[in-house]
Design brief:
Shape: elongated
Oligomer: single chain
Largest sheet: 5 strands, mixed
Number of strands: 19
Distance between the termini: 159 Å
Strand order of the largest sheet: 5-9-8-6-7
Radius of gyration: 61 Å
Strand content: 15-25%
Structural class: alpha+beta
């Protein structure tokens, strides 16, 4: 449906506005859209009246009142005349949902009742719009309050996140600090364990003293001085020592000499040293069960020591003192044992037609001195007894026991007993004298003019015999058990032909035994070494031959046991 209205005056404009509103209501346009439409149309008509002339309002619907469609509103100049002819048309469109009641007519009469009804309808639309606006305002107020509360919540959340961030940063800082302290503690403990292992591995006190500066400089000290007391008169040596070191020696307590307090646990603060006032000194005594061995004086690697480093240094000094004390005791006992053993080793007798050469080498590692021994002496009938043996155990006790066996053997040999008989008597003697001590031995007897060698062994490596033709034989006939074991035994004699030019080698296990290989390969090496000589060489220089045998056999030895070798050569 299409309707046109002519507008020239204000009354025409009012009627046109009322007609548009009634038509929009008839076709189901919502109150809000009607209000917008009439407001926009009023504004446009006011402009048209201001410009003057005659205007046409065209209302066009695209559907019946009961159907959905569109309402087109167009304002154009009337017949294109007047000043408004150049104005472009004004257009707007609203949606028509549906109409509950069909319009009874669309004509706008001049009847006042019709005008009043139209005005009341416009007021109702305005009231409805105002109600909708009030609802929207309340909704906006509600959303504004929610937004305010949300902002407050966001601010509170930001505050909580900031507090959580600060707490996390503090926790991270505490964790880093704890990790750094733990790493420092681990580093100190590792150093203490490694340094202690290095110090206790040596049994030479001079080497331990030399190792201390190498271990501590430069990480834990700039300089290290070790002052050892060798005797009562050495507590005031010619070389000057800091007063704090002397005080540490007298009191047995660590001293710290500097122009500022050290704050070190268990350390007494003292004035700076007159020898070097600008350098802080930490003087730690080397304690033992009796009196201090000396004083360790250190200067810090930087301005001062960390308290934990100082505690570690005091503990390391205590361990170093124990290592030095043990090394000194070991050296003292070793010197006594070696002196005693060398004093007991006999001078070899001179026998026509029979040459003897002996070698004794003490162990170079550990306190293994004292067990190995050799001897050679004559019996009343002119026979020459040669013996080599090894007492179990090491040190001074083994050396003393070896001397008792040597003396007992010489006493038993006065009666003219054979090698087997002598070993049997030594077995009984040792079993009753020292039930917890054992020994091994080999005894060989040479009779003047007798081409037979008589020998007996008790748990000892077998003798090696070189014949004049260069052949080497191991005399491994069944030996007796070790001397001193809780077993009654009778050790038997064995014999072997002994032609002029023959050489018999008696030895201890330190010459042939290696931990990784056992003893048999060593005996074979000894046999090859002895077979490499000829009779003339052995006749001419038996002493030199003994040295040339030892050199290759000991080239791979760590010398952790004594070595004895006794060569008996019958002249050709």
């Amino acid at each position: 449906m299409t309707r046109s209205l002519q507008i020239t005056t204000v009354v025409d404009a009012a009627r046109a506005r009322i007609a548009t509103a009634r038509l929009a209501a008839a076709y189901g346009v919502s109150a809000l859209d009607r209000t917008r439409l009439t407001t926009a149309l009023s504004s446009q008509l006011r402009q048209c009246l201001t410009k003057g002339g005659t205007w046409r309002l065209t209302l066009d619907t695209t559907a019946a009142p009961a159907e959905e469609g569109l309402l087109h509103v167009v304002v154009t100049p009337w017949h294109g005349t007047g000043a408004a002819a150049a104005q472009p048309p004004w257009r707007t469109t609203v949606r028509c949902d549906r109409a509950a009641d069909a319009p009874h007519g669309t004509a706008v009469a001049d009847d006042p009742a019709v005008l009043a009804e139209a005005l009341l309808g416009a007021d109702e639309d305005t009231a409805l719009v105002l109600e909708r606006l009030s609802e929207q305002e309340e909704l906006v107020t509600f959303h504004r309050e929610e937004l305010h509360q949300t902002n407050q919540g966001v601010l509170a959340l930001h505050a909580e996140l900031d507090a959580a961030g600060r707490a996390q940063r503090d926790a991270f800082a505490a964790e880093r600090k704890a990790r750094t302290e733990a790493e420092s503690a681990r580093r100190r403990l590792t150093f203490l364990a490694d340094a202690s292992a290095v110090l206790t591995a040596s049994l030479n006190h001079d080497e331990i003293v030399r190792l201390l500066p190498e271990l501590l400089v430069p990480e834990y000290a700039r300089s290290v001085d070790v002052w050892l007391f060798d005797g009562d008169d050495d507590r005031h040596p010619p070389a000057p020592h800091p007063a704090a070191a002397v005080l540490a020696a007298r009191t047995g307590r660590p001293q710290y000499a500097a122009d500022h307090p050290g704050g070190l646990p268990g350390v007494v603060d003292q004035p700076p040293s007159a020898l070097d006032p600008a350098r802080p000194l930490l003087c730690i005594p080397l304690p033992t069960r009796r009196t201090p061995l000396g004083v360790l004086t250190l200067s810090p690697p930087g301005d001062r020591w960390d308290p934990d480093d100082a505690v570690m240094l005091i503990e390391l000094t205590r361990r170093a003192s124990i290592a030095i004390d043990n090394a000194r005791r070991f050296e003292h006992n070793r010197d006594i044992a070696e002196t005693l053993q060398r004093a007991l080793l006999t001078d070899l007798p001179s026998t026509p037609g029979l040459s003897l050469a002996a070698r004794y080498l003490p162990a170079t590692r550990g306190l293994n001195i004292g067990g190995d021994w050799y001897d050679a002496f004559r019996q009343p009938d002119g026979s020459l007894i040669t013996v080599i043996g090894d007492v179990t155990g090491h040190g001074l006790h083994a050396a003393v026991m070896m001397s008792q066996l040597r003396t007992a053997l010489r006493a038993y040999a006065v009666d003219g007993g054979s090698p087997g008989r002598l070993l049997t008597q030594l077995h009984t003697f040792l079993h009753h004298l020292q039930p917890d001590l054992y020994a091994t031995a080999v005894i060989a007897r040479f009779r003047p003019g007798d081409p037979t060698l008589t020998w007996a062994a008790a748990g000892h490596p077998p003798p090696v015999l070189r014949t004049p033709d260069g052949q080497v034989h191991t005399l491994d006939a069944k030996p007796g058990a070790m001397l001193g074991i809780p077993l009654r035994q009778e050790i038997h004699d064995h014999t072997a032909p002994l032609a002029p030019g023959s050489t018999l080698a008696l030895y201890t296990d330190g010459l042939v035994e290696r931990r990784a290989q056992g003893i048999d390969p060593g005996i074979e090496r000894l046999a090859r070494a002895l077979g490499s000589f000829d009779s003339a060489e052995l006749d001419a220089d038996l002493e030199g031959s003994a040295d040339r045998i030892l050199a290759p056999l000991l080239s791979d030895s760590e010398r952790d046991d004594d070595v004895c070798l006794l060569l008996c050569h019958l002249a050709a």
